[in-house]
What we know:
Elements lengths: L12 H8 L6 E4 L6 H9 L4 E6 L2 H14 L3 E5 L5 H4 L7 E7 L4 H5 L25 H7 L2 H12 L4 H14 L5 H10 L13 H11 L2 H15 E11 L2 H13 L12 H12 L3 E2 L10 H6 L7 E7 L6
Parallel strand pairs: 1-2, 1-4, 2-3, 4-5
Antiparallel strand pairs: 5-7, 6-7
Helix pairs in contact: 7-8, 7-10, 8-9, 11-12
Bound molecules: S-adenosylmethionine.
Amino acid sequence: MIPTDTPHIPVLLREVLAALAPQPSGVYIDGTFGAGGYSRAVLEAAPDSVLYTIDRDPSAIKTAEILAKDYGSRLIPVQGCFGDMDTLLPEMRGKIDGVMLDIGVSSMQIDDAERGFSFQRDGALDMRMDPESGQSAADLVNTLPEEELADILYRYGEERKSRRIAQKIVAARQEEKITTTAQLAAIIRTALPPKRPDRIDPATRSFQALRIAVNDELGELERGLAAATRMLKPGGILAVVTFHSLEDRIVKNFFRDHSAPKTHVSRYSKTEQAAAQATEESFPLRLDMRKPVTPEKDETAANPRARSARLRIAQRSSAPFP
Ligand SMILES: C[S@@+](CC[C@H](N)C(=O)[O-])C[C@H]1O[C@@H](n2cnc3c(N)ncnc32)[C@H](O)[C@@H]1O
């Protein structure tokens, strides 16, 4: 991930807004407030709408509280994990018109060296989106058994040299505790061939893997999809933007498992159409399209971070969801 020092640019904003189609007096949840790009757009698009805005990062919530001054009681900041949205807002279950999730970290988090997300900036090896809870990346690299470390690097970073890197980490920590991003990046680089000019830095995959592990990002995404389905009212929209295949697969599978299987229905048979509609209504989600929405060329040209983004959209039906 490249530090940018630019404000966070919302990705696929046009497409998310088109999917959500915010209505005046609608009630929405932004599960990943970040810099508030999505939140602001919804509040502006639908004049009397109300938006609950969640983030696990206390500094994002501070930004939300400042923004709330412009929107009064229409913007309600909530600090916590989107995977818990149904327990954070129990009174709103089944009453929400749309939920947005924009997975991953914000530019502000990457750019702040002290948060420890970027190997291109030396800082404390932390990587927690909520610095007040859970174990930091330094805790993991200094304490996990070698095999568990290798597993994390392989599963979440798709790092083929995971065992070699884990070995180097364990050898290095016996000499000296690993406390900074620069220290860890240097150790990882000793396990891999030097960076070629046309390739990503060899430390990229391992840093991604540790960040995912520290924040239990894939577990959170699974819980978040289920929690969002519980929050939506029939007809409500769930829009999820992901940035790598591990995340996109979770969304794709969740949507597939909770919507009607695709079948061919004759345009001419009213009976087949009625049967297909009844089947569709017995699943908690409806899918208009099975392929993800990807950014247009103008967006990727203006914001390289958007290149790997995928948006998937589902609509809540009236079928029960556990
Ligand atoms: C990519 S940014 C969102 C940017 C936002 N859409 C915007 O337009 O500014 C992701 C944000 O989600 C937050 N986040 C990530 N995972 C979270 C989770 N499980 N629960 C709550 N917030 C989360 C991060 O702290 C970060 O602020």
